[in-house]
Write a sequence for this structure.
């Protein structure tokens, strides 16, 4: 079968499954999730031996060690995958919820009911745990999903699908609900992105290259997650002890992720007191500092930041630092160089906090807390399928609700339009 | 200036205005709207004389009379445009609303705050009142808008923009907030649809041809409104007197609009009683009936419906009629031939009503009420900028809220991620 026909057949199966999934009750969905968790653990030897094939071919092809590490499935990794599924099972069902209901003057009772989106195409890189995450979140929210993982993980992903299929069958959920594309052919992605009559949403997860490719080639709406150039602004009225802690946490707790801080903005009035101590602490943790002229005047041995630094997502122990003359300049800097991801103000002043909160056009804006909290679990969504940095449909971390939409439901007793 | 440069300059102005609009308070937005209303009425002679140019050129080009009628602006049309603006001014400001707020175990207070989308491109046909509608809804929701109306209405639209600009100036709102593309060049639309770095959302409003063109050529997300193939299903347990009224209202009250009924489904158990009387009533109103075999066995002089009829949006006094053996067959018919727009069940049976409500995958699903209620005003949204028949971001009628998104706002007191 040609790649085109293969993908088309998968899309048709997903659409078939979709109508069935829409009306599945919570009991049956949770039963399927629990079957998945149980079978994945039970079949772990099979999963590990298939995973081993990916590891070996990654080694043969000389993939970097950290990448091979992320590829590996062992008991610990599988355990956390299984726990993740059980956690999704324990979350309330978003489908069928009536979010609001109101009465019209003519007696009509109008409400908005949460329903699944339909069929989701999920395109991602590397780690096989994403396969299980995405599968369980889509199932719980009543969506069918077509998964396209990285070619390095093809054996692992197909093995996971095989076990998941068995679980679906046991729970009498159609297999079209969760499918893994069985080829590493790039054409598969291109075909998938053209099937706007079958697929309702594409979610890419991975590096900027993957996301741009998907966004540019898709006829289907895409929930994009571009880079995170996150800021902490230390205000004139900041509690400096708190500022040291927040700035440290935001930069070094996990520098390689999108919600880590990349640029520190400091109000001129506190720069001389704050920066020498802060930079001293950063250096102890191995953070390289690239500063503006004013920063360098205060701490002389800092590397000069270039224009490019202000819009760079380092994903590493590097930080750009700029002294600003006031809140307004901080807001303007974030507006110009930020990526609408996550930004924090540290201040004791209520008015400044509120101005920052309202003035920053990012998906998560915080007062006196680390940027690292931009995360579906941390913010209390119960789950996370990605972070959207564009505003349509979802903005910020996406949980189960963001995999649904609402329709209007109307109860009447014979109302006519005049 | 080339068309490309012209559109690019407009987009840049819109982006500039966007940052300003985001933080405008309700008072200033409403003041600008009231200025608009006042000045449009004051400058009516200028508007009518510019409108006359469009009317004359439409006559010269031999446009159909109903189209020329829709183009015309007189005191009555202008009055209702002005009233529309004042109504928008009286609506609550969606921006800044915190839709929910919750406390996390670590003390973080997390909420979702409504914010504008940014810059909206609005592409539409014919009627100049849409220019004013879209302008006032976008302004109220804090978005900048670039308007591209039909070439037949170019003089009217530019005249409206001229007056609107004066009003914006008086209210100290940047002119980039509301701009009309001053050319009828088709290239303008193509350029506009490619500016995904400047424009956040495209809303097309008009015939299916326009909407398909926009959807296929846009790099920017599009809120689509495809055709409305709306159904009324008269159940075995319907109150037949109510059914006659609802079916009549849904079909003939305004047959040319998208929420009018196009297909009537009747449960077999009541078909013999219901159809002869219903069809008799329809014929009195000049409705042409196209029926399935069973319908024709009951009412012999009905034209046979072809396969094509089931998916046709007549927008006219034509109705296709099908007898179904049960609710399940009705649901399957709507799933296959419907357009996810609006569908109604007429029944006295609670279980059937709820099964229909949950089983139909359309933007508005009604029990015992006319399909004609799929409308932002009728459902209580206070306004309507269009109806979305795709699920992402908005599904069904779109009011002010649908022109916004939410960001997460987080209040902490030094929380760090562990």
């Amino acid at each position: 079968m040609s790649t085109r026909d293969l993908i088309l057949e998968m899309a048709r199966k997903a659409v078939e499954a979709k109508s069935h999934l829409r009306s599945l009750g919570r009991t049956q969905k949770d039963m399927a999730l629990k079957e998945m968790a149980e079978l994945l653990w039970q079949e772990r030897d099979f999963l590990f031996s298939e995973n081993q094939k990916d590891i070996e071919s990654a080694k043969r092809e000389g993939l970097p060690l950290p990448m091979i590490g992320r590829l590996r499935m062992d008991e610990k990794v599988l355990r956390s995958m299984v726990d993740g599924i059980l956690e999704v099972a324990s979350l309330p069902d978003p489908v069928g919820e009536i979010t609001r209901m109101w009465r019209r003057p003519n007696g009509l009772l109008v409400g908005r009911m949460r329903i699944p989106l339909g069929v989701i195409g999920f395109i991602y890189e590397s780690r096989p745990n994403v396969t299980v995450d995405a599968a369980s979140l889509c199932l719980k929210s009543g969506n069918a999903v077509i998964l396209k993982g990285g070619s390095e993980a093809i054996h692992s992903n197909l093995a996971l699908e095989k076990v998941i299929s068995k679980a679906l069958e046991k729970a009498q959920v159609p297999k079209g609900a969760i499918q893994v594309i069985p080829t590493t052919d790039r054409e598969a992605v291109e075909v998938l992105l053209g099937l706007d009559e079958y697929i309702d949403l594409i979610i890419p997860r991975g590096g900027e290259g993957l996301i741009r490719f998907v966004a540019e080639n898709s006829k289907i709406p895409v929930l994009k997650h571009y880079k995170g150039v996150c800021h902490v602004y230390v205000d004139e009225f900041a509690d400096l002890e708190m500022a040291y802690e927040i700035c440290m946490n935001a930069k070094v707790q996990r520098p390689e992720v999108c919600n880590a801080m990349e640029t520190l903005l400091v109000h001129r009035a506190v720069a001389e007191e704050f920066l020498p101590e802060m930079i001293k602490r950063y250096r102890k943790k191995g953070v390289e500092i690239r500063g503006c002229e004013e920063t360098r005047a205060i701490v002389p041995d800092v590397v000069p930041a270039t224009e490019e630094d202000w819009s760079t997502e380092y994903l590493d122990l590097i930080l750009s630092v700029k002294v600003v003359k006031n809140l307004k300049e901080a807001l303007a800097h974030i507006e110009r160089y930020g990526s609408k991801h996550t930004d924090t103000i540290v201040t004791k002043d209520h008015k400044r906090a509120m101005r920052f909160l309202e003035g920053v056009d990012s998906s998560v804006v915080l007062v006196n807390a680390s940027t690292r909290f931009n995360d579906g679990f941390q913010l209390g969504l119960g789950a996370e399928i990605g972070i959207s940095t564009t505003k349509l449909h979802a903005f910020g971390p996406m949980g189960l609700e963001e995999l649904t939409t609402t329709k209007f439901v109307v109860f009447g007793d014979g109302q006519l339009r005049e």
